[in-house]
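Morning!

This is the sequence you dropped in the shared folder:
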Amino acid sequence: MLVRNLSRRLWSTVRYEKRFLASDPAKPQPETNDGVEQNQAEALDKDICLLVDEKDNFIGTATKRDCHKVAADGSVLLHRAFSVFLFNKRGDMLLQRRASQKVTYPDYYTNACCSHPLYIDDKPEEIITAARRRLNFELGIPLDQMDPELFTFLTRVHYHDPGDGVFGEHEIDHILFFQSDVKVKPNSNEISEYCYVPKNEFNAFIPTLEGPLTPWFNMIRRHRLKLWWDNLHRLKELAEPDKINKFLNEK
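The structure's back. Tokens below.
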């Protein structure tokens, strides 16, 4: 595959913009009074996220904006999230760069999709339903190419990160792995670059990136990614969906 072959040259060597950038350049959007671009601001106020306690029990709702505001004491509302790690059938992992207009962690590198289940039709959205919705929205993957049975719910991670001091994260993050060959057409308002990275080149590839890693991706990278990536053929044996891990985000 062309994208895979280019990834072997590493992004720091030559900039292959047409092949690495999202399908269409993001169009400049007007900013709101707080400096957030209009597309992102609409989602901040429209999306209703799920508040949880430290055992991941659903306890209420709040807007996406309120769930990511950093209070004066540095606290952020604890809410439910998910992170999808996407692999093709060869076992290469999709790595993406968040768009520069993202409210949290703009221009950071991360796994395929990181988002939230929402409160829809008076009930909490199921995690895999939310994952398929966002993979379709962010990466343009057709819904009919994402069989829910191909998702493996591995574990949950409770972490807190202050972000830029204005918007941050405090999540119980449900970690999902998905392996299949799918069509990808990124939404440029969400993703600016992507490529598939082979496992045996991943460690050398990370230092060449032109930006930092998101805190959730960095924690998984340090604590679990190698184990899971080495065992894509038997992930269900390693799954601990009832467990909530707490990892340190080591920069």
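Headline: The longest strand covers residues 151-161.

More detail when I'm at my desk.
O.
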